[in-house]
Amino acid sequence: MLQVQRELAALKFIDDLSAHLKDAREPHKALRQALRDTHNFFQPAVGCVATLRPGHQTADLLFTLPKRRDWDLDILTRYIRHTDPPVQRDMVIGPVRRRGGAWGAIAFVRPGHSFDRDDRRLIRRITDVLSDALNRIDRDRLLGVRDRIDRKVMEQIHPKDLFYQILDGIR
């Protein structure tokens, strides 16, 4: 019965996280929210979000809980690059995808207490929800920029030319 309660709690957590991330309009706010919520759920000692920018050799820590915690950036970098770093049993890492590829990772450490296979599956589901939210934010931002450009073009075009463009578009 304990396993069923744990699975129910995990599903409720994923649903709540999805609802919180649905309202996010900025990637950093979504990352911070996911880190904070997941940290509260797992109750680890420390957690972080790291990203790997193109052209950089090591990952950058964006957020940590608690602040100023030293992390092994080599492990995070290797994980983001899919080179299978050695991960201790008291650490769980999940991939964050953005713009169609590997972009970052969210990691938690609970010294003295190991994470099990269910925890590793759950972190994967959490990062899938987070990645979907980041892709939605990026898509919404892109659509907003295209809309502003379209509006600016339409404001500067003569009605006769607009009519011909519409007919050409229909054709």
Would you kindly provide a brief summary of this structure?
With 171 residues, the chain is an alpha+beta fold. It contains 5 helices and 4 strands. The chain has a 4-stranded antiparallel β-sheet, sandwiched between helices.
The biggest beta sheet, please?
A: 4 strands, antiparallel
From the alpha carbons, calculate the radius of gyration and give it in angstroms: 21 Å
The helix/strand series, from N terminus to C terminus, equals: HHEEHEEHH
The secondary structure category is alpha+beta
The DSSP helix count reads: 5
Distance between the termini: 63 Å
Give the number of DSSP strands.
4
The chain-level mean pLDDT equals 88
Largest sheet: spatial strand order: 2-1-4-3
Global morphology: elongated
Q: Give helix % range.
A: 55-70%
Strand content: 15-25%
| Poorly predicted runs | none
Task: Please give a structural write-up.
The protein is an alpha+beta fold and 171 residues long. The chain contains five helices and four strands; from the N terminus they run ααββαββαα. It has a four-stranded antiparallel sheet, with helices on both faces. The longest helix is centred in the C-terminal third of the chain and has 39 residues, at 117-155. The mean pLDDT is 88.
Helices, strands, pairings?
Blueprint (H helix, E strand, L loop, with lengths): L1 H21 L4 H16 L3 E6 L8 E6 L7 H8 L10 E8 L2 E9 L7 H39 L3 H12 L1
Antiparallel strand pairs: 1-2, 1-4, 3-4
